[in-house]
Design goal:
Layout (H helix, E strand, L loop, with lengths): L2 H7 L3 E7 L4 E7 L4 H12 L7 E7 L2 E4 L17 E7 L6 H4 L3 H16 L7 H16 L20 H6 L4 H12 L7 H12 L8 E4 L4 E5 L3 E6 L8 E4 L3 E7 L2 E6 L7 E4 L3 H21 L5 H164 L12 H67 L1
Parallel strand pairs: 1-5
Antiparallel strand pairs: 1-2, 3-4, 3-5, 6-7, 7-8, 8-9, 10-11, 11-12
GO molecular function: actin binding
Protein name: Merlin
Subcellular location: Cell membrane; Cell projection; Cytoplasm; Nucleus
Length: 547
């Protein structure tokens, strides 16, 4: 067979892109494939067995539609693109997640989808519940809280809270992280699948969980979920105005834009409403049929496949529980071992530190011993030197004692000389006073003598006038005898007087000169005594310092 013949037999294919909540996949599909063929391929790729909850969704003309399983993919009204994009999402929701979601992959896909719906505000959640749900999401992603590893700011890049909650409270990102971490720290020991299941168990109690809303009138919304059909006011999606449980509905049908709900009680009123488009009625009916089938299945005996899956799920849970217990035990043992290791390291470090300190102390002791030896040697040398100095000091002391004795004797003699000098000075002062008084008396006598001389001259002049009046004016004509006789008498007296005065003046001058000479000598002697006394004082001071 030729290569061209082989090529002709190869079926034609088209590409599709499957987008899950956390991944993207591409497949090549045959042109004749139905929706179920593509859906089964995706489920096999994901390892999913609980296929009845899921479907392939696409958007056409602004309306979300589910791919029909019994029709060819290319025969349906799908986007004309290459590759064709489909979203693999949960189409139907369980009533009790813990009992119905058996596989871990199923739980994980539901967890991611419900979390996204809460963050996108498609499901309303109170702020307190969002913080708790966020803590379980963090536990599922990061595992047990470790303050040494999960430092502040480790949630900065994670989207955990709806924007509505962030706007409602004026809290910083650090405050929100602190609140979430407080809950997160309490989930220690919870595995990832258990944390995701706890997340879903809280979420399934929210009013808007698993409800698909459709506008049916100006002010009304129709909601379809796992429990039945509900009628809501357009402004209140939490509390339905009227509800029809699946067990109370006998039939649902539509005719173009009219949808009819017939209760099981034939006497009850039939509910009819009109939608804007025929496609909306078809989508509503499709969702009603699927939810009703699941509702009835839950209330019947499980099929062999479901029983096997539940048994496997129980075994898997038991195995995981044991595995988790083993891991927890190993983790505990590892933590204890790490703590023991840390304690040993701390003790080792402490012992090393003590050894280092002891070694340093030993080195210091050795250094101190060497230093003490050097000091002892120096002290011994100093002792010898001090002994030598002591001997020299003793000799110096003896010399100083002798010097001091000499000095004391000299000082005594000097003091005696000073006393004698003082006595001489006193005597000289007294002699000076006496001489001064004698000089005064002599001056007085001299003054009296001169006064007597003046009076004698006056008297002689008077006598001359009486005896020789004509010679008063002309004394040269006085007789020689008379002049001589008179002058002789007066001259004798005058000569005597002059001789006495000269003698007295000479004696006074001589005594004055003697007094000045003695005073000068006495002052020189006093200066010598002061110099000697000052030298003795200096020697005494030096002798005191030496002693």
């Amino acid at each position: 067979m030729s290569i061209r013949g082989l090529k002709k037999k190869q079926p034609k294919t088209f590409k599709v892109k499957i987008i899950t909540v956390d991944a993207e996949m591409e497949f090549s599909c045959e042109m004749k494939w139905k929706g179920k063929d593509l859906f089964d391929l995706v489920c096999r790729a994901l390892g999913l067995r609980e296929t009845w909850f899921f479907g392939l969704q696409y958007t056409i003309k602004g309306m979300c539609t589910w791919l029909k399983m019994d029709k060819k993919v290319l025969d349906q009204e799908i986007p004309k693109e290459d590759p064709i994009s489909f979203h693999f999402l949960a189409k139907f929701y369980p009533e009790k997640v813990e009992e119905e979601l058996l596989q871990e992959i199923t739980q994980h896909l539901f967890f991611l989808q419900v979390k996204k719906q809460i963050l996108d505000e498609e499901i309303y959640c109170s702020p307190e519940a969002t913080v708790l749900l966020a803590s379980y999401a963090v536990q599922a992603k990061y595992g047990d809280y470790d303050p040494n590893f999960h430092e502040p700011g480790f949630l900065a890049h994670d989207e955990l809270l709806p924007k509505r909650v962030l706007r409602q409270y004026q809290l910083t990102a650090e405050m929100w992280e602190e609140k979430i971490t407080a809950w997160y720290a309490e989930h220690r020991g919870i595995a990832r699948d258990e944390a995701e299941m706890n997340y879903l168990k809280i979420a399934q109690d929210l009013e808007m969980y698993g409800v698909n809303y459709f506008p049916i009138a100006v002010n009304l919304l129709l909601g379809v979920d796992a429990k039945g059909i509900h009628i809501y006011s357009i402004n209140n999606r939490f509390s339905p105005n009227k509800s029809f449980e699946w067990s109370a509905i006998r039939n649902i049908s539509y005719s173009e834009k009219e949808l009819t709900i017939k209760p099981l009680d034939k006497k009850a009123e039939v509910f009819k409403f009109f939608s804007s488009q025929l496609k909306v009625n078809k989508l509503i009916l499709q969702l009603c049929i699927g939810n009703h089938d699941l509702f009835m299945r839950r209330r019947k005996v499980d099929s062999i496949e479901i029983q096997q899956m539940k048994a496997q799920a129980r075994e898997e849970k038991a195995r995981k529980k044991m595995e988790n217990q083993r891991l927890a035990r190993e983790k505990q043992l590892r933590e204890e071992a790490e703590r023991a290791k840390e304690e040993l390291e701390r003790r080792l470090f402490q012992l090393e530190d003590e050894a280092r300190q002891a070694n340093e102390a030993l080195l210091r002791s050795q250094e101190a011993a060497e230093l003490l030896a050097e000091k002892a040697q120096i002290a011994e040398e100093e002792a010898k030197l001090l002994a030598q100095n002591a001997a020299e000091a003793e000799q110096e002391r003896q010399r100083l004692e002798i010097t001091a004795l000499k000095t004391k004797e000299e000082k005594r003699l000097m003091e005696q000389k000073m006393r004698e000098a003082e006595l001489i000075a006193v005597k000289l002062v007294k002699e000076s006073d006496r001489r001064a008084k004698e000089a005064e008396h002599l001056k007085e006598d001299l003054h009296e003598a001169r006064e007597a001389e003046r009076k004698a001259k006056q008297k002689l002049l008077d006598i001359t006038r009486l005896n020789y009046p004509h010679m008063v004016k002309y004394p040269q004509y006085l007789p020689t005898d008379a002049r001589d006789a008179n002058f002789d008498k007066g001259s004798i007296k005058l000569d005597l007087k002059d001789i006495d005065l000269k003698r007295l003046s000479f004696e006074i001058e001589r005594e004055r000169l003697d007094y000045l000479e003695k005073s000068r000598k006495f002052e020189d002697r006093l200066k010598e005594l002061k110099s000697e006394i000052h030298a003795l004082k200096l020697e005494e001071k030096q002798g005191g310092l030496y002693s």
